[in-house]
Amino acid sequence: MEELANKTAYLKAVMYSGVTVLEGTTTWCPQCKAIQPFVDKMMKKYPDAKFYKYDVDAADDIAQELGARAVPSFNVFKDGDIVDGVSWNKPTELEKAIQESYGDGKVVEE
């Protein structure tokens, strides 16, 4: 998963025709590490979606833009517009947010 280092990279990433998922994380967050296998599964299951992560401490301009107050923090974009957000380690809510925006994209079941 590509890491976004600044607001310029963030703006480029979300201006995508389709679904983009941004994960706000930190190096010290145990819940961020705990949800990572689930995020990896979502990347495989929804291959037409773009997934990015950013460090809320290092890329505080992105965190501020998105209002990230908890980690992990996920934001789902559809065609450049933010459509949903999920904070904390909530896999069911995260997948629901992705599904609702994904539409008729290819789904790969394991």
From TrEMBL:
Q: Which Pfam families match?
A: Thioredoxin (PF00085)
Query: Do you know which PROSITE patterns this protein is assigned to?
Result: THIOREDOXIN_2 (PS51352)
The residue stretches assigned to a coiled coil in this entry are none
The Thioredoxin domain covers 1-103
Q: Which UniProt keywords apply?
A: Disulfide bond
Known InterPro entries for this protein? Answer: Thioredoxin-like_sf, Thioredoxin_domain
CDD domains on file:
TRX_family (cd02947)
Among PANTHER family, the record links this protein to: THIOREDOXIN-LIKE PROTEIN 1
**Which family does the record claim for this protein?**
Belongs to the thioredoxin family.
In Swiss-Prot or TrEMBL terms, this protein is called: Thioredoxin-like protein
Q: Which organism is it from?
A: Acrodontium crateriforme
Q: In the record, what lineage is assigned to the organism producing the protein?
A: Eukaryota, Fungi, Dikarya, Ascomycota, Pezizomycotina
